[in-house]
Write a structure and sequence with these properties.
Low-confidence stretches: 13-19
Shape: globular
Length: about 150
């Protein structure tokens, strides 16, 4: 568990764990969670996708899995998948699609590539499943499920 904590602190320090915006010519940094990962991860677990999900964009490390009830085995599986796609590039879409262990993609803010990634995943066998948004912000997570995947619930 200690390893998970240190890995999480590391990933938060190198990820997009804050969001910069300009308001009235002043830089504003939001350092709290703006994405509704709590509902997204709880729903993913409820439908049987724990351990077979990749999160692209703002991830907050693996803290979500720890906080929202994933078992150690599920968290370890998530971590293995996440390591492969942490530094997402265009060529990784193909390897993500080919990886049959990935049943669900949680796509949050990914600079100007969010729509492109979403469209490319849909063209390659995923379908939009759910959207999770924070009522205090306009930020949302798009959940894409592999089309051949049957819901376990």
């Amino acid at each position: 568990m200690l390893c998970l904590l240190f890995y999480n602190l590391y990933t938060i320090s190198i990820s997009h764990s804050h969001k910069k915006t300009i308001v009235n010519n002043h830089l504003v940094i939001t350092s709290h969670h703006v994405y509704n990962y709590e509902i997204a991860f709880k729903t993913a677990k409820e439908y049987g996708y724990a351990g077979s999900t990749v999160t692209l964009g703002v991830t907050y490390g693996i803290l979500n899995e720890v906080l929202y009830g994933y078992s150690l085995i599920e968290t370890k599986k998530q971590l293995e998948i996440q390591k492969k796609f942490n530094d997402f590039e265009d060529n990784n879409i193909d390897s993500l699609v080919k990886n049959e262990n990935i049943k669900l993609v949680l796509l949050s803010d990914f600079s100007n590539k969010k729509e492109y990634i979403c469209t490319k995943l849909i063209k390659n066998g995923f379908k939009e499943w759910k959207k999770f948004s924070n009522e205090k912000t306009a930020d949302e997570i798009i959940a894409l499920v592999r089309s051949a995947t049957k819901e376990i619930k």
